[in-house]
Amino acid sequence: MVAARGAEESTAWRQPVDLVALCDEAASQMPELFAAARTLRGWSHHAALARELLGDDPAKIIDALKAAIRSGATPADLGRSLAYGAALRVARFGNANEHADWDTAHHVFTYANAVHQMLRRIGTADIDGYVTAVRAIMHGAMALYLARYLNVPPARIPAEDSEQLDDLPADVETIRTALLDAFDRQRQVDLAARLVARHLTLGHSPQALIATLALAVLREDAGFHAYQMLEAGVAQFTAWGNTGEGRHVLIAVARYLAAHSPTERGVLQTAHIARRLMQGDTIHQGGGAS
Q1: d(C-alpha 36, C-alpha 38), whole Å
Q2: C-beta separation of 68 from 81 below 8 A
Q3: What are the backbone angles phi and psi of residue 268, rounded to the nearest 5°?
Q4: How far is CA 52 from each of CA 47, 80, 89, 135, 151, rounded to the nearest angstrom?
Q5: CB neighbours of residue 23 within 10 Å
Q6: Could you list the pLDDT tens digit for every one of the 290 residues in the chain?
Q7: HSE, side-chain direction, 13 A CA sphere, residue 259
């Protein structure tokens, strides 16, 4: 505990741009910005703001957040944009990156989702409370900025730029089987993403797809990160619905899960054995003495 260090003490947050100072300056302006825009309603430029948050100039990123507040964006609106931007980091995670870099993308996305959910719960009744909490948006935006190398070069998101997916199955059950089969094999990140895009662009049930992704997690020896990723992805998809942005979120989830599958599946084997024992089956039956 005594040796713990905050991100603000790391070189990346101080050089070549002092991101901590940027955040502190912006935070000092939050009360005035929100107070001036308190009567404004109907801000809906979440996706556009998210793409600005993916920029490579931290000062412009902070300016974009302040401009959104002036236009009537609520704290929860900012959180939703941040979470979508972080989902795009995962969806466009380049396959040339080191495998451990998936954790960086995961941390930013799950942090952003947690901030979004927190700001939704706080609401806008107590300006002092939510203005303090909005500092988390600034920190998340800078973490998103620092993770920009994960998208150099960016992976292609399926179904973008009129990409056709007609080489993939169209039937719901066949897509489900193909997706689970992709999770059975290594290095199927892009295929898993394409199958998710295929399912959703055909208008099939998002709930059925989410159930398949949940099954894919449950049958693996999944760590905490996989469950966090699934939970955050479902929460963000619920905010967007089956829109282009919502599809990007579930594509991000599928790519992350595929990158960490298959595992040894020892937990699944244990569950199968326990179920058989509960049903009265004999697992091991020794032979008689010879």
Answers
A1: 6
A2: yes
A3: -65, -40
A4: 9, 13, 13, 18, 15
A5: 20
A6: 445 455 656 688 988 999 999 999 999 999 999 999 999 999 999 999 999 999 999 999 999 999 999 999 999 999 999 999 999 999 999 999 999 999 999 999 999 999 999 999 998 777 777 888 999 999 999 999 999 999 999 999 998 877 889 999 999 999 999 999 999 999 999 999 999 999 999 999 999 999 999 999 999 998 999 999 999 999 999 999 999 999 999 999 999 999 999 998 877 677 777 777 788 787 766 544 44
A7: 27
Torsion-angle region of residue 55: left (phi > 0), alpha (psi -120 to 50) or beta? beta
| One-letter amino acid of 30 | M
53 near 86, Cβ under 8 Å? Answer: no
4 contact partners, CB below 8 Å, separation of at least 6: none
Gyration radius of the chain over CA positions: 22
- CA distances to 76, 78, 114, 118, 265 from 242, in Å: 20, 20, 21, 23, 31
Q: Say if residues 22 and 59 touch (Cβ distance below 8 Å).
A: yes
pTM: 0.89
Burial of 200 (0-12, 13-18, 19+ CB in 10 A): buried
Q: Position 221: which residue type?
A: D
Per-residue burial over 120-142, b = 16 or more CB atoms within 10 Å of its CB, e = otherwise: bebeeeeeeebbebbebbbbbbb
Angstrom distance (rounded) from CA 260 to CA 262: 6
